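Homework-ish question, so no full write-ups if that breaks the rules, but can someone show me the predicted structure for this set?
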Amino acid sequence: MKRLPPQPCERIDRTQRVSFKWHGRWYSGFGGDTLASAMLANDVTPVARSFKYGRRRGIMAAGTEEPNALVTLEGGSGHHTPNVRATEAELYEEMQARTDSGVPSLKHDLRAWLKPLHRFLSAGFYYKTFKAPKSGWPWYEKGLRRFSGFSGAPTEPDAEHYDQQYHHTDIAVVGSGPAGMAAALAAAQGGARVLLLDERSALGGEMVSDCVTESRAGQWFEATRQALAEHANITLLTRTTAYALHDYNLLLALERRQDHLALPARKPEQSRQRSHHIRARQVILATGSHERPMMFANNDLPGIMLATAVRRYLHEYAVLCGDEVVIAGNNDSIYALASELLDAGVRPVVVDSRDSGFDTRALQERGAVVRKSHAVIEAVGRDRVSGARIAQVRQTGTRWDCITLPETLPCNLIALSGGFSPVVHLDCHTGSKPVFSGEWQAFMPACDRPNRWVAGSVNAFPDWAGCRDDGLYAAARALEALGLNPSAPATRPQRTTLNTGPFVCLSHKRDKTFLDMQNDVKASDIEQAIRENYRSIEHIKRYTALGFGTDQGKTGNVNGIAVAASVTGIPMEQIGTTTFRPMYTPVTMGALAGEETGLLYDPQRFTPMQTSHQQQGAAFEVVGQWMRPWYFPHGDEDMHAAVARECRAARSALAMMDASTLGKIDIQGPDARELLARVYTNAWAKLAPGKCRYGLMCDENGMIIDDGVTACISDTHFVMTTTTGGAASVYAHLERWHQTEWPALKVYFTSVTDHWSTTAVVGPKARRLMEKVCSDIDFSADAFPFMDWREGTVLGVPARIMRISFSGELSYEINVAANYGRHIWDQVHAIGQEWGITPYGTESMHVLRAEKGYIIVGQDTDGSITPYDAGMSWAVARNKPYPFIGLRSLSRSDTSRPDRKQLVGLLTEAPDTVLPEGCQLVRHPTDTVMIGHVTSSYLSPTLERSIALAVVRNGFALQGETIYARPVSGAVIPVVIRDTTFYDAGKEQLDGER
Amino acid sequence: MANVEPVFETALQQLDTSALSGPAFNVTEVRDFAYVVLRLHPQTAGATEALDRLGLTFPPALGISALPEQRLVLKWISPDEYLVTLPLADRAAFIERAQAAFRGLFAAVVDNSGGYSLLRIGGEQRYAVLSKLCFYDLRGNLPVGKVVSTRLARAPAIFYRVQDNELYCMLRWSFADYGWKALLAAGGEYG
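A: Not a homework solution, just the prediction itself:
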């Protein structure tokens, strides 16, 4: 392998020398090189060790179909990228690359030394081995992991960021070879908005080779490239691989925006990669085709490459991959390479498996040797290929036999062309199955989904002009579908042919004939799978791992299907292909996440008082998406100390809490009251304006799903509150029932959760504070009783004040428009200093309500608890004129069983012992069947001991009994069952200091 | 009785918004507007007349009707829901007039002024930035006079356009900080 003098259409920049490191050693390439082309120019071989057998492997292809040269870039740093194809990695200054595929190293591989054991490592060997002794499995697993996989995963945080972008376009064209270029330009000229994308850095696809050999091609390419760049209707995305095509033409593509830049040159404000989400009214797939290798023994040696790859390296990168060349193939394209190698001063031997075909006289006159009806039966070599053993072959039915003795041709490069497989993947992502064509010896895209077209070599057009014309045809059809007038003819052009011969797979050394290079799958593995009765191609795939690798079997799958066909006698069209699924090529996790990482991973929702909470030193917890103050530590208080202080303040003096996160739904209409009666278990008919009521909401199964206080503003106007986490689901619940079951009810629901901010003032001194902040309401106990609300002015702001309580203490909730939320909070905090007002968070809130036995939906209920289970029969009105949701289910035999799990209180015998929440409960110490679990558990500052709530089977009947808590620690903790109200059963605290 | 002057704030009042004030991409929170939800179906008897008493007409689906002199915009949100943006100073009077106009009808007037943050978005790169956060075709499918309810990153958002070179985006108050962070991240590469 060597670098040639400048080539007519080369894409490298010889003025730009680029240094790179491969396995710790420095090499040099040029700007425009890929890592692969630079390694080839430097004669680096081998580049990897194979997956199972540790065989030496070299670079085989030039693009995304490369199965061997998987490298790790920038290993160990924040730019560590595993499993990059060297053929796709654009070279940049000081690139650091290595392969991790050698065990322990690329030079010395243990798996290769185990060659005598390879016969035991055929397909599915892991289903049959390592069965005994079972105790050895931890070692087996550890050992097997060491041998498997390619690159290691990054260990450092990613130093770069990623993003996404959404597009809407008339026509998306995937692939910018001649078909894609022609289609895109014609579509834009026809008036469509066009998005053209290509995985390579430059347009043209495989055209470079054509531009070298045919000046007409070069002229057309240049003119079209210029026109595409200048057309206002066209968006060009290069370095962009379409990796998925979903229903209704949602095309996903990955753009490598900065991967080609040296690390210091990358802009931190710009994403490294971008995932494009493209919604196109029409999609034209001009995705090209992948060349297949020929099948023979040792066809995996370094120095054995695809013929199109040899051409690309020659023309685009000025790299001659070998100077003693054998070209082996079954189609006319091998002669184009032969001609170009002759131009480069190489005299190739062409081994054509076909009997008839191409007129080779001109080539032979120039010095090429041509052997028709011949095939390579085995490659020889160790570190790289050194010879090709060829023989004359004959096909009888599905068998291929050698009919002459083999002869060995010395060579350092074997270029293979076993035919071309259209890149059908994107077309198949929405469930289409490609159809095998005997004429083209390929699986052709079905293209049977609406608003989708294929053009070019994916459609079996082998020449650039045919591809171009097919692209024009596809554009015309797409424009017609959009209602635009195409200028190109609407007749499909005629295809020329490569006269592709049948698949050749000799019986010689099938255990060394590799089909899937990445997973070391051989022709003998296919035979074995079929012998063991895995006859469906899907089963063959899974049993052998054919096509499992990151290359998705781009070069191996169709050959594998051909072998299966020859072994079973079933035609290829009946065997079919396996299912193509996204992604077409690997996509980084970063690109999939986009910008939704860190603080943008999930919205953090804040109340209007957030700044004040931060200033007051709150610790926060996430509740739904809300950031709620968890507790407000003073000094070096831990949570327990802070909670104890906060609870004592609420019970003995004055405290305050931000309750803004609760859901609030404005309900208006003549049937508002009736609607409430149907969605809540309790009665609403007599709730007067100015009053509030606690409501319990059930699903159709009678299970509690939410609760909250609803205020009656007028006979036709209510404001419902929901739990913080239930706001959206309750709103949807109301709309669903209204729209589907009760559309005749005249009622509107409007979410006002964000509009209202709520400051709760809590404690015996609460009335004193309210009298200071609001002068137009009488706060005396008789004038403003519990569960009433009033409208007034608080600190200059119109407010609704609700006298409700989740703590059991005297409590007022001040509701104002969010714009004044922080004003109210700050002023209440300042004015309340007179009584030592103490802000408290959700942890104290939980303790205070648990002391009173108030449930938290979702903590003390889990979707399987009815109101009766929760001891809340007082909240169930069974005699309403119209049944509420869940009523009927409360009468079902299972729902009305007396021994259901029921909500009870628990006290541990040792008062300092706090039960873990979720802890299992059993009847007797040694029982192994649980009778319930702990739902809430706290250390109560008020009672100076632990308390807990739990659901226990038949709990109501077990009052006073001792049962046992069994946490995962293994302890056995005796607990006494009691009712759920631990504090102020007489509700004397509710009126506070009068 | 404590005697203090109320302090009015918007959702992004506490943030330094100068980071997104360049010619390529700029975002400004509009701080002197109120938001009122009108619930009324056009096919309700008397609905058209009721709206007429407010000087308004029912916009078509995804449409807007406006009173430019009063800087009032009525936006279609759903077949029976309309969102009004109007100067804060006019809020109370408008609510009173709307309640009077709708009296006797199956309708509702809901003050939601604390519920939103209103952002005005401009700059040459506004579509490049917004297309990173919103999957709706804001450039090609949001002409003057159209409103859509969609998403900005993971936040619910209402976009509408009343003139060519700028967009309005309404985010719920509690999502405004997140939305701002998302706009900052997306706009970063455009300075």
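Now go work out the reasoning yourself. Hint: The longest strand of chain B covers residues 155-163.
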